[in-house]
Design a protein that fits this description.
It contains seven helices and 15 strands. The chain has 282 residues and is α+β, with helices and mostly antiparallel strands. The strands form two sheets. Strands 7, 8, 9, 10, 11, 12, 13, 14 and 15 form a nine-stranded mixed sheet that branches. The longest helix is centred in the N-terminal third of the chain and has 15 residues. The mean pLDDT is 97. The structure holds pyridoxal-5'-phosphate (PLP). The site of pyridoxal-5'-phosphate (PLP) has 13 residues, from helix 5 and strand 13.
């Protein structure tokens, strides 16, 4: 079975799935997306992804699209692929029209889904740690909406690579630590976890949410507050969270070692918890 796409209710090889050159996603980045991890043949945290998709579409005043239909499409194409550990990508654009900044009143959203084999199984040990650079956040003011407008993220990631680092961390005014190019940032200091609060400047990450909720259940509070790069550099641990990233220890930032320079117990504990959630998903 090849890696598959889903389009207009049909399943086909990815190379045969096409969108129009007048798709508003293509011309204006007028589209939203989700990346979902398939594990043991099932999409992990599917309802949370559907809820966030709905939130993104509402925030941009997209025409209605049935979430039941989206869900059905995801399940259908992921199952047809027979890939146990998959990466499910789904995109919804506002629709097709003759190019004009102003969207037409009645539009039909365009849904496409692809399923590919994941590079690695989500059930694998913690990374020994990677390095990151910091970059000024040059993105727009609504990073809480998951749009395909990812050029600043792609450029920051390229800059990281050029500097021999794995990722880039976006800094807002006054060197506030926001998030990385495709994951959220946590720091640990004296046993306490900190992360940027939910504002229009970061994506409400699902992995971030799973972590905060699991900590709350165990009676540990994650402090959601603004902190600067100085606090990040002086932290005991820094790690990233995301669907594809899972939990990734950052052991060096702008060539400065973090803590012991090795992954810490906070990241390790969260990974264990996340793997347990993936294994026992309902
Ligand atoms: C900018 C950004 N922040 C955070 C995340 C992490 O979100 P999630 O845990 O839902 O994958 C992503 C994921 O794609 C992202 O693109």
């Amino acid at each position: 079975v090849p890696e598959l796409a889903y389009q207009n209710g049909k399943i086909l090889p990815i190379s045969e799935a096409m969108v129009s050159v007048e798709d508003r996603g293509y011309q204006f980045a007028d589209a939203v997306y989700e990346v979902i991890m398939g594990s043991q043949g099932r999409p992990f945290a599917l309802q949370k992804h559907l809820n966030r998709l709905h939130r993104s579409m509402s925030a941009l005043d997209f025409p209605e699209l049935s979430l039941d239909l989206v869900k059905e499409g995801i399940l259908k194409v992921n199952e047809a692929s027979e890939i146990p550990d998959s990466v499910i990508y789904l995109q919804v654009s506002r629709g097709n029209q003759v190019r004009s900044h102003l969207p037409e009143r009645e539009m039909n959203p365009v849904l496409t889904i692809t399923v590919r084999r994941a590079d690695e199984t989500p059930v694998r040990p913690l990374s020994p740690g990677v390095s990151a650079i910091t970059v000024p956040d040059e993105r727009w003011g609504r990073c809480d909406i998951k749009t395909v407008q990812l050029l600043p993220n792609a450029m920051a990631k390229t800059r990281a690579e050029k500097n021999g680092a794995s990722d880039a961390i976006f800094l807002g005014p006054e060197n506030v630590v926001r998030e990385a190019t495709s994951s959220n940032v946590f720091i640990v200091k004296d046993g306490v976890f900190y992360t940027h609060p939910l504002t229009p400047n970061i994506l409400p990450g699902i992995t971030r949410e799973i972590f905060i909720q699991s900590q709350a259940k165990a009676g540990h509070e994650v402090v959601e507050e603004i902190f600067s790069v100085e606090r990040l550099l002086g932290a005991d641990e820094v790690f990233l969270t995301g669907t594809i990233t899972r939990v990734l220890p950052i052991t060096k930032v702008d060539d400065i070692p973090i803590g012991t320079g090795r992954p810490g117990p906070g990241a390790a504990a969260f990974l264990e918890l996340l793997i347990e959630e993936i294994r026992t998903q309902k």
